[in-house]
Each structure stands twice: as C-alpha cells, then as structure tokens.
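We treat protein structure as text, and this decision shapes the records that our systems exchange. The tokens are whole numbers drawn from a learned vocabulary of local backbone shapes. Below, we set out a record of this kind in full and without editing:
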Amino acid sequence: MLKALDDIRKLEGYSELSIYTDDGRILAFSTVDGIADTNRLPDTPGDEVFSELRLNNTYTVLEDISQNTQRFRVVVPIRSNEFGRDFYLLQAIK
C-alpha cells in the first residue's frame, strides 16, 4: 500500500496522500519528504472533517498556508465493511 500511495502521489503531483481509519488512526501515508518518514507525520484531518464526511461524501477546502501560498485538501471516504469499519478516509493535499 505504501508503494502504491507513493507512486500515485508522485504521478499526480500531490504533496501528501494518506489513509486513515474512521476513528482517525493513520494506516499509511506518503509525503514529498518520503514514504512513511517518522520525522514528518502527515497533516491529519481534524474532527470537523470526520463530521463532514459522515454527512457528505467529500470534504474539500482551499487552505491559506501563508499570505501568498495556499494548499488544496480533499478527503473522501472509502466505504468498507471490513474489520467492523464503516469507512476509511483517503486524504490528498496539493
């Protein structure tokens, strides 16, 4: 899964791709700093994102990083009944 996330992130030009459980635990991630670099953890979605996903199918926002820099965050559910989970989250940041 790590290799697939890293390949997709590079191909699409994302700065980060990550997968979370429905209760917010990280399963896998890839960042521009490297695959699963323990010195650089992913930017975990906040509680408001999880609440929004329970009501809607996606969460998208354009976030200000600095006065001249923005980033685009997209979080989508991956529906699953495996292991007692309602869904997993796929987050992409560009």
